[in-house]
Specification:
The chain contains three helices and six strands; from the N terminus they run ββαααββββ. It is an alpha+beta fold. It has one domain. The strands form two sheets. Strands 3-4-5-6 form a four-stranded antiparallel sheet, covered by helices on one side. Strands 1-2 form a two-stranded antiparallel ribbon. The longest helix has 14 residues.
Length: about 120
Amino acid sequence: MGGSHRAGGWRRLPNSALAWVPDAKLDYYLDDARRHAPNSKVGLFRDVLGFSDRQSLSAALVRHAQAHPAVEYAMTSWGVLWNVDGLLEGPTRAIQMRTAWMIDHDSRRPRNTTAYPLARGGR
């Protein structure tokens, strides 16, 4: 995939300086109405990691994408999907997370599509 490069022996998410998280995704991650649902990401991002606002969560997800190795894992009709695994730093705690990013065919900007904790052992 063009535009990515190796830094310290690992591949960086292409155009990671342009990475962004859609407001709808941030609202989903932080939505109090879903806070106590089974497998709630709200409980993860708010209660475990300590995020309370869009800006700080978005900044942390983008930093995560920029700081850890990226693996291209699928080419779709919409674009290229990438996984980034590493430590996500929250205001109160840090945990091993996978974030996924889509670079649409008509864009250069990686867009966050999901984020979830990694099981012990990295997968």
